[in-house]
Amino acid sequence: MDAVSLQQLRSWVDRISVPRHALLQAEANRAFARWLVEQFEAWGYAVQLQGIYGNVVALPRNMASEIVLVGAHYDSVPQSPGADDNGSAVAAMLGCAEVIAKFASQTPVGFVAFNCEEDGMVGSADFVDSYLSRAEFTVGAVHILEMVGFASSKPGSQRLPTGLPIQIPDRGDFLGLLANKKSGVLMDSILSEAKGCLPKFPVVGLEVVVGAEKLFPVLARSDHLPFWNCNIPTVMWTDTSEFRNPHYHQKTDTPETLDYDFLRHVTQLLVATVAR
Questions:
Q1: Which residue ranges in the chain fall short of pLDDT 70?
Q2: Which of 14, 173, 222, 233 supports an S-S bond with 146, CB 3.0-4.6 Å?
């Protein structure tokens, strides 16, 4: 966990933060995918561009029959640099991949950078339908990272989606975890890990009852949904997006708006969780 570098996370976010929509900034999008391939290959992963949307899949070279996956989408909406959405998550994923490769290379964990999340999550849906259905391994758990770099300790900085029958703190300084019934045990293990290794870092978990994502579509807006639909235990990690970050999908979603201590804690918890 100490090997997770705040400066390196900031450097990656700076590198990522240019508009990179899959269609409207296609060259920037493809260039970033190639850069991701180079990063993962440098750490010794077996890497490929998967599917028609260009998902970047990085698997351990010593494959196990069952692995854990960490995923984050790398595209942005057309007008935004996307530092938090989703540069922060890609940086956390890279931070985890680098540390695992250096210190725990036998850990059965793979990484997937999805494209086209901003266009209906078609990249992750294709990965699940076309790739996982034919894979020679099974997936025991999935961690989807969706905006994990914005935090504020100001009272009232955290809002709640309209009508959602839950209670959360009104200060936006916590990491949110979203699970369904199938992934409740996985979420509990993350919460337990947080208490043990980062006791001062607030983490809040929400288990969605069956069908709630249909009543509250905000619960089904990221790349965890295709995995949920296939009954694969999957937890989404998030800073709660527009319910905290005023720069969501705006030109102002830039690297200087993020809290890099918060992002480092998220990455450390991710490392501890997958290593465990």
A1: 215
A2: 222
